[in-house]
Known about the structure:
A: mainly alpha, Four Helix Bundle (Hemerythrin (Met), subunit A), about 70% helix, globular, B: mainly alpha, Helix Hairpins, 3 helices, elongated
Amino acid sequence: MNAATVIFFILASLLVISSLMVVFLRRVVHCAIALVTALLLMAILFVSLQAPMVGVLQVMVYAGAIMVLFLFVIMFLNPSALEQPSAAWWGLAVVLSALLGACLVPLFSHYEPGDNPVTSTELFGSPEVLAKSLFGEFVLPFEIASVLLLVAIVGAVVLAKREHASDGAA
Amino acid sequence: MVPLNYYLILSAIVFAIGVVGVLIRRNLIVVLMSIELMLNAVNLTFIAFARQLGSMAGQVAVFFVLSVAAAEAVIGLAIIISVFRHRRTLDPQEMQLLKW
Lengths: 170, 100
């Protein structure tokens, strides 16, 4: 077992623990902090998988922007004051999800990658290569994603805007 | 080098944990956080296969998943604020107006 594997197991166990904390902690702010931890660990895993650009994007978009948004909403609504006990059928849900995991794990552990070797050049995963792929082969999905983000901005403003004289028009 | 299977198993475990969160929590914000967790587990699968197959398409797919997740979080939180303003609750079991 070499050093990379040891580091992977440390990161993986921390990731699983922080994911469990997201799901099972009572207070919502603690869940948010655990989610930040999980996202940062995921970014480290991305960097270890030769995807440094995606790791940086993960830190900026997820652990930065999205989590600030979550914390803002938590701060506005103060949801821990009205925390309910978990759903009555939570045992069934846990069993079903464990079943899902038990189905997925053997499926993945039997995956044979074939003879395709890992082509790891120095440039693989760099911003340059990612940008060439993004603006060359995938330029149409990129433009569609920009339209999607515009729609999301307008939709969020319309949804969260305080209604004035309009009664019931959400 | 860490084998591909380890990453796939890790992402399966994280995905299952996210499913648990969506199913058992009665707080819409935590449900949204669990969805983000599931999206991230799928991202890990994409990145692992991108390295294994030596193709940049997996990393580009993660880029698109990131932008869709950002849009989804923004719209979801706006809906949560709007619902909370009307109903004074974040419990998804209280929101059954469209239940048949």
